[in-house]
């Protein structure tokens, strides 16, 4: 790396992400000065602790944006050289992204231009990719379309059912790419334009993927259940819904191998699948 001492603003709603980035940046000789997070309703984020005094890295200002238009003045107040975004729900206005003199860079959990959009991990399962992707890219006026600075893949395991299981592996891969990313930024490298071919959109699921068809292969249903687990309850419809014993249930966790007597075996189009956890639909 040819430069140190950058003032860096972090844009994230995920405390472990802020902690990992802060640790790396300080170790690399940079100064993470603020975390900009999104203000959420308590109901919307009841499953995870929000960014705040008790969860943000020590020694940093914490700013809670009420909406995307608040981000520009917050960045101007922080006066960063660089902004790093990772795990943030809003499309940030271009005027805000242009505040740091070195630009703004995002970490997206997909191999862009594949799976642009809000739930790329879910679509990696849905499309049977067998792996996750990580892309650091420059941010522009559109969503997930900026020039690529670094990419990596992370193997998908059959028991990947939660962000707690997958997140540390994705995080390690993302942090591992950062030295090369910062070197390219220091050199004024604009990044590699995303190809026009291979573009897909990882939008929220709808009714077309909400119902379980027991005639599908076991792995396809297993991936469907896991795909819904990574929507984090943000899709407009519930899923995946299966019929068992004449009743509708939502499948929460399944297994391709017999996990023990507490699981229920069901027959799929090509063999068995075990239901580990489910809940009745009201």
Can you offer a commentary on this structure?
There is one protein chain. The protein has 282 residues and is an alpha/beta fold. The protein has 2 domains: 7-186, Rossmann fold (3-Layer(aba) Sandwich), CATH 3.40.50; 207-280, Formyl transferase, C-terminal domain (Methionyl-tRNA Fmet Formyltransferase, Chain A, domain 2, Roll). It contains 6 helices and 11 strands. The chain has a 7-stranded mixed sheet with strand order 3-2-1-4-5-6-7, with helices on both faces. The chain has a 4-stranded antiparallel sheet with strand order 8-9-11-10. Residues 42-46 have low confidence and may be disordered.
Overall number of strands = 11
Count helical runs: 6
- Percent helix range: 10-25%
Uncertain spans = 42-46
Q: What is the annotated CATH architecture of the largest domain?
A: 3-Layer(aba) Sandwich
Would you list the SSEs in sequence order as H and E? EHEEHEHEHEEHHEEEE
Let me know the average pLDDT: 94
CATH topology of the largest domain: Rossmann fold
- The 3D shape can be described as elongated
Q: How many separate domains make up the residues?
A: 2
Kindly estimate the percentage of residues that lie in beta strands according to DSSP: 25-35%
Rounded radius of gyration (Å): 20 Å
Q: Which class of secondary structure composition applies to the elements?
A: alpha/beta
- The end-to-end span amounts to 57 Å
- Overall CATH class of the largest domain: Alpha Beta
Task: Summarize the structure in short.
The chain has 282 residues and is α/β, with parallel strands linked by helices. It folds into two domains: 7-186, Rossmann fold (3-Layer(aba) Sandwich); 207-280, Methionyl-tRNA Fmet Formyltransferase, Chain A, domain 2 (Roll). The chain is built from six helices and eleven strands.
């Amino acid at each position: 790396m040819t430069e140190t001492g950058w003032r860096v603003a972090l844009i994230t709603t995920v405390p472990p992400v802020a902690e990992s980035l802060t640790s790396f940046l300080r170790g690399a000789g940079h100064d993470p000065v603020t975390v900009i997070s999104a203000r959420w309703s308590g109901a919307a984020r009841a499953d995870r602790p929000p960014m705040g005094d008790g969860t943000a890295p020590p020694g940093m200002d914490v700013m809670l944006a009420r909406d995307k238009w608040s981000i520009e003045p917050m960045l101007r107040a922080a006066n960063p050289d660089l902004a790093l975004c990772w795990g943030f729900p809003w499309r940030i206005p271009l005027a805000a992204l242009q505040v740091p003199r070195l630009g703004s860079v995002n970490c997206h959990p997909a191999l862009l231009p594949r799976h642009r959009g809000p739930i790329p991990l879910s679509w990696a399962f849905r499309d049977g990719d067998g792996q996750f992707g990580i892309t650091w890219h420059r941010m522009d006026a559109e969503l997930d379309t900026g020039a690529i600075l670094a990419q990596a893949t992370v193997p998908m395991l059959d028991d990947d059912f939660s962000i707690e299981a997958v997140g540390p592996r994705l995080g390690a891969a993302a942090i591992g790419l950062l030295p090369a990313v910062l070197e390219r930024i220091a050199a004024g490298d604009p990044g590699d334009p995303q190809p026009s071919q291979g573009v897909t959109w990882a939008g929220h699921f709808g009714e077309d993927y909400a119902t379980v068809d027991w005639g599908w292969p076991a792995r396809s249903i297993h991936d469907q259940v896991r795909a819904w687990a990574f929507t984090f309850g943000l899709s407009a419809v519930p899923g995946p819904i299966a019929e068992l014993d004449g009743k509708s249930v939502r499948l929460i966790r399944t297994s391709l191998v017999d996990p023990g007597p507490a699981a229920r075996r069901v027959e799929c189009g090509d063999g068995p699948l075990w239901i580990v956890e489910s809940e009745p639909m009201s």
